[in-house]
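Let us walk through a complete example step by step. Step one is to write down the protein sequence. Step two is to encode the small molecule, adenosine-5'-triphosphate, as a SMILES string so that its atoms and bonds are unambiguous. Step three, shown after the inputs, is the structure prediction itself.
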Amino acid sequence: MSSTVDLQGSAQPPQGEPVIEVEDVRRVYGRPRSGLFGKAASVTALDGVSLTVHRGEKLGIVGESGCGKSTLLRIVAGLHRPTSGRVRVEGREVTGSDRDLAWLRRRLQVVFQDPMSSLDPRMRVGDIIAEPLVGLRVEGDHRARVAELLEAVGLDAEAAERYPHMFSGGQRQRISIARALAPRPQVLLADEPVSALDVSVRAQVLNVVERLVADLDLTLVFVSHDLSVVRHVCERVVVMTRGRIVEEGPTEQVYTHPRHDYTKALVAAVPSVRRALTEERGVG
Ligand SMILES: Nc1ncnc2c1ncn2[C@@H]1O[C@H](COP(=O)(O)OP(=O)(O)OP(=O)(O)O)[C@@H](O)[C@H]1O
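Step three: the predicted structure of the complex.
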């Protein structure tokens, strides 16, 4: 899917060249046998997913838990291999080889849901943020870069000397964002980046993401089960269920005029989104 379709059916190709191209990707996970004579079950997490993300786009991926959102993101990031199908980033195939991953990490970084488990508790924050710079052998003054990144995410420079457990959940996610941005990627993948946070700090962290994506002109892919968060951040959305994309388009259009029954149910199930749409657009 390389273009969006509006309500009247006229194609509106997103601006910018393709940065991520996902082509008919399937991913089947094996499950161990249940008992000695039980059958080995398998789960089809992705069942023929195709998707193009264009330079500078902010794309949301929504769907219920287990629909395959994280698997798709991890395959794009080279962390999982597809069972079949292909992924290209800036025209180069993501193969999972060490050489390709080093190339990919300079261009594309991931922020995960749980900042506690993704930050090494034994490392100082400054070393955590500098880790990708060291790993990718990025030249330059790493200390200065760390200070710049801490400021960019709204943390004091002294944070570099402290450890992750000394920070709140929201601050830890700011640290994760700083680390992801350290090697100056052009693409940021975010997997439920605020879902593990207290409601009171979600908006602040989302604002940090939005501001940095705008300032640095990043391409953003934002996975969330929370439709209102995606509405806030992303101009285009794809809707997934059971390992497939069933609908895509500009976020406002998909939310106000969902075409697929699954999207209709998804939108109807979120009172805050339904209320906002009703008030703003007179859509019931
Ligand atoms: N490592 C794994 N081994 C076996 N099955 C897996 C594995 N990872 C995911 N799955 C299964 O694949 C399906 C898709 O999972 P995935 O995590 O991609 O969905 P999701 O939409 O991101 O859900 P959630 O938001 O709950 O993480 C689910 O049925 C899940 O149980």
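Step four is interpretation. Residues 22 and 234 are 19 Å apart (CA to CA).
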